[in-house]
Specification:
The structure is a single chain. The protein is mainly alpha-helical and 498 residues long. It has a single domain, classed as Amino acid/polyamine transporter I, CATH 1.20.1740. Helix content is 72%, strand content 4%. It contains 21 helices and six strands. The chain has a two-stranded antiparallel sheet. A two-stranded antiparallel sheet has the order 3-4.
Length: 498
């Protein structure tokens, strides 16, 4: 089974998907005239608009929900894996996929907000919704929704939960060993699992409002604390910083592990971490209360910067500046190209990051990484639940026998149990398969939308014109020739009646 999953992962994450992610980001950057740079100041202004309603959440809450999905295990263990298999140059390609991917995030999140609907007193939307409403292809919407439920409901939570379980063990130790249906497990991990399930249940059974409130406070706190600690490590090794940046840039094109490895691992882990083009960020974007669809597109574009240019870079610089890494070759035998650590050090785990902090802070370092892993992974599981729930709600529109949302909640909690207890090595490959499935469908879909109707460009031009005019921001899709954006059509009609 492990060999099959590994080979399937290799097919999905072929060079075609890697260059599709980079190409889509470059394409949307050119088409939007690099909106991720031009409107950066506007992104910051929009973050602190506190407007929400009974049906929708604020822009900042939507940012926090999307960041809770973006900032996860990939920011710690994923960055370590990118360096371990792709060399320091992989960090450059993570930056590139973030910079270009911010424009992709703008496009997909604007579409999510543009074609959202109001169901049972709350806003819902995402890739499945806009494939159906914009393209008129419910089959493509259903295909994405099914892949999202499988990925976010089954494959991806296991990666995060496994890190949560390991974090608990790292902090408290194994405790007494108990036999379970998945083998022998420490009592401390089981106790941690019980707490996780209790808190997770309270949050996800409370709906998007409770998820947003949780993310609004926890996500900024955990990201800020992690970055501050990274800055301390960098400050204590500041004389090495120029050399680290020189290594990253030189290795990106004359790579230690081969340029293909640097690009492949950098893009792969970059997309896994920041989710640009994956379609997951569109769900939180649709849940926001905004005056104009482009506003949430800009907020979500900024979230890519936070995830990769801040949090992932913090991890990478800590690892490289302290020389706490190995680089594994691609030749048979897997000999190391660069070796600073014992050969037994696991590549692809949080070990590099733990050792980087331990070299600076002693025993506190691994403890802090374990704590960060716990919070990063836990908030990501919450975000995955919301994505799975939204796509089940979409599918329920087309099936006579609806899937009760309680089934999704129980499925996520079951996968948390599986991921926390199970230590199988292929669990990361399952996560990569989930990311890749959604990315293929979503990126191709949003490119088709662009060539058919270009609604994201129409929204951007309309928003920029209103900003320049200095008047109140409104949105009327009919005036722009955008069809089937029924939520916004009805809002514009009510405004005209008043």
């Amino acid at each position: 089974m492990e060999a099959f999953i590994s080979s399937l992962n290799g097919v999905i994450w072929s060079s075609a998907l890697i260059y599709l992610c980079l190409g889509a980001g470059l394409f949307y950057s050119i088409q939007t005239r690099f909106v991720q740079v031009r409107l950066f100041k506007e992104m910051l202004r929009l973050l602190f608009k506190k407007r929400d309603t009974d049906s929708g959440i604020s822009s900042f809450q939507a940012l926090a929900v999307s960041l809770s999905g973006r900032v996860g295990v990939g920011n710690i263990a994923g960055v370590a894996a990118a360096i371990g298999f792709g060399g320091p140059g992989a960090v450059f390609w993570m930056w590139m996929v973030a910079f270009l991917g911010a424009s992709t995030a703008y496009a997909e999140s604007t579409l999510g907000q543009l074609y959202k609907v109001e169901e049972n007193g709350q806003y819902r939307g995402g890739s499945a919704y806009f494939f159906t409403r914009c393209l008129g292809w419910p089959w493509l919407g259903a295909l994405f929704a099914v892949s999202a439920v499988i990925s976010c409901g089954i494959f991806l939570p296991g990666v995060q939960a496994n890190a949560v379980g390991n974090a608990v063990t790292q902090i408290f130790g194994d405790g007494a060993m108990v036999d379970t249906f998945m083998g022998s497990v420490g009592t401390h991990k089981l106790a941690g699992l019980a707490v996780i399930l209790l808190v997770l249940g309270v949050i996800i059974f409370g709906g998007i409002k409770r998820i947003a409130q949780f993310a609004e406070y926890v996500v900024p706190f955990m990201a800020f604390g992690y970055i501050v600690l990274a800055l301390i490590v960098i400050a204590m090794n500041i004389d090495k910083l120029p050399g680290v940046f020189s290594l990253i840039f030189s290795d990106a094109f004359s790579a230690q592990a081969g340029m293909g490895a640097a690009i492949g691992w950098g893009v792969k882990r970059g997309v896994y971490s920041n989710e640009a083009g994956q379609g997951t960020g569109t769900h939180a974007a649709a849940a926001a209360e905004t005056e104009h669809p482009s506003q949430q597109g800009l907020v979500q574009a900024f979230s890519i910067y936070v995830d990769t240019l801040l949090v992932c870079t913090a991890t990478a610089l800590m690892i490289l500046i302290t020389n706490q890494y190995n680089v594994q070759g691609t030749l048979p035998g897997g000999q190391f190209i660069v070796q600073h650590l014992p050969a037994t050090t696991e590549i692809g785990s949080a070990a590099f990051t733990q050792m980087a902090l331990q070299s600076t802070f002693g025993g506190f370092g691994p403890f802090f990484v374990a704590l960060a892993l716990f919070f990063f992974a836990f908030t990501t599981i919450v975000a995955y639940y919301y994505i799975a729930e939204t796509n089940v709600a979409y599918l329920n529109q087309y099936f006579k026998r609806s899937v009760p949302l309680v089934v999704v909640k129980l499925l996520i909690m079951a996968m948390v149990v599986f991921g926390t207890i199970n230590s199988a090595g292929y669990i990361w490959n399952l996560g990569d398969i989930g990311v890749g499935m959604m990315a293929w469908i979503n990126i191709i879909g949003i490119l088709i939308i662009f060539f058919i109707s270009r609604p994201t460009i129409a929204c951007l031009r309309d928003y920029e014109a209103q900003l320049k005019a200095g008047g109140p921001i409104t949105f009327d899709p009919v005036k722009l020739g955008i069809r089937n954006a029924t939520f916004w059509e009805e809002r514009a009609a009510r405004r005209k009646q008043k």
